[in-house]
Write a structure and sequence with these properties.
199 residues; mainly beta; 6-stranded mixed beta sheet; 4-stranded mixed beta sheet; 10 strands
Length: 199
């Protein structure tokens, strides 16, 4: 059947297509995109890639590498989270207790501790640097106090407190990689003069 009429729409390079009138179609000859004009500007209808694919120009309008709705989810206030537990901590946790991790064979460096955290661990004496107290002759309980960064000293290096059945001892980091010597803070039985002086 012979064509009786040819209907064409505005067409040209995407950079030169201009602002379309509301309801006007515009075809980009270089990118094969089809736009329609609206009262707020051009709206992409079809792109050449594949119908139904997500287009960065639609779903990542600010070009930050995240889908716009996902970016909004990053900043949802706690009051806007659905399905959260009525009280914290959830899943059997406890807000009034410190979990003592069984890391008995791990010799933690100051930088291994979590900054601005109070943590606890069950340690072999050798892994804890042989503090002068013990819980059983082979093991000791260690509290880690990292009140500031565990990687730089401006707020003070982390401190460890060793707790045993025969007393308490403490030591402080001297760098991100090393601890100072243990000092007996309290010990069952008579203390030596050097222990009282902390040497």
């Amino acid at each position: 059947m012979a064509r009786k009429a040819l209907i064409q729409i505005r067409r040209g390079l995407e950079s030169a297509i201009g602002t379309l009138a509301a309801g006007e179609l515009g075809y980009c000859t270089d990118t094969s995109k089809l736009y329609i004009g609206s009262t707020t500007g051009n709206v992409l209808l079809v792109a050449a890639q594949t119908a139904g694919d997500m287009l960065k120009s639609i779903y990542d309008t600010n070009n930050d590498g995240k889908v716009d709705f996902a970016a909004v989810a990053d900043s949802v206030p706690w009051s806007g989270v659905a399905g959260k537990p009525a009280a914290l901590p959830a899943a059997g946790g406890s807000a009034d207790a410190i979990n003592m991790l069984d890391t008995r064979a791990v010799a933690d460096k100051p930088s291994d501790l979590q900054s601005k955290k109070l943590t606890g661990a069950f340690k072999a004496l050798t892994a804890a640097g042989n503090p002068p107290v013990s819980a059983s002759g082979m093991y000791v309980y260690v509290l880690n106090v990292a009140g500031w960064s565990s990687n730089e000293p401006s707020g003070g290096w982390p401190v460890q407190i060793a707790i045993g059945g025969n007393g308490l001892a403490f030591r402080q980091g001297v760098s991100a990689e090393a601890w100072g010597s243990w000092t007996a803070l309290a010990k069952q039985g008579a203390l030596t003069w050097n222990q009282l002086k902390g040497v």
